[in-house]
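Risk register update: the risk of archive-format incompatibility is retired. Evidence:
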Amino acid sequence: MLAERHLGHGVGEEDELLGRVATGDDDVHVGRSLPEHVEHLAERNEVVVKRVRQLVEDDQIPFARQNFRARRFPRRSRSGSIATEALSASWDLTFSGDADPCKYLPADWLYEASVPRTKFVAPFPNASFKGRLEIDGEAIELGGWPGMIGHNWGSEHAERWVWLEGTGFAEDPSIYFDAGAARVRVGPWTTPWLPSGMLVLDGEEHRLGGFGQIRSASIEAEPGACEFTLPGKDIVVRGRVSAPKKDFVGWVYADPKGPEHHTLNCSVSDLELTVERPALPARRLTLAAGAAYEFGLRETDHGIPIQPYPDG
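Archived output:
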């Protein structure tokens, strides 16, 4: 999964690899020893790359008046490299995907409004990747690996947020799930969780969350796990995403207006969903060691090491 973040007003131009390449039973994190794990890299079809870049002019063009996907991704390819004391890595990937973009915000006008101050969308919520990844001289060929591309930008992070994502479910690889929720600070108050997302099941899109569902939705997030209920029109999705804390990567997200957040991310999480619809039996969906769970928070006592890469 490739995700890009663009925040203005103080965020620098430094590019960072803030994710990991998943191995057989372990995760290889940036900043840790790698060689003994390289031989297992091809056993896991998961790659996460996070890049931090300076706000560009295109991001200031009102969302509703641009072909967002064509502007941000004129070529369906991504390449790059990184070198640290712990490892060196490079990637040269192409991707395909025809699913419509997943707009997390429930209305297009919110992408032009001053609030929320963070905008996010998945231009390619269900993509297939191929190409080449190289870790410390060891090459891995990718062919048809499932994933997604996400993009978020703005001037300020939410007070707390979660991101939940899954493609390649055991029951049906065409199913995908992508959702986010945030608590936003407004003056001295912090809002309840504001959820929004999408489940594509049997070729049908189901919008989840939105302003009308705030009271009936629930998010119970903590480092290592999140339980959630996301209602939509004629559907309720209940689920749990979890992973051992050792499988998470932590890094700093700076706020232009300060102070900073800690971001905890695991893209080899286990995801279980129960889908409830009127007049239909409940349907259970599972994704083992292939889902994404990200938790953004102010607290620093979560017990997950923070990578030594500054932000901003």
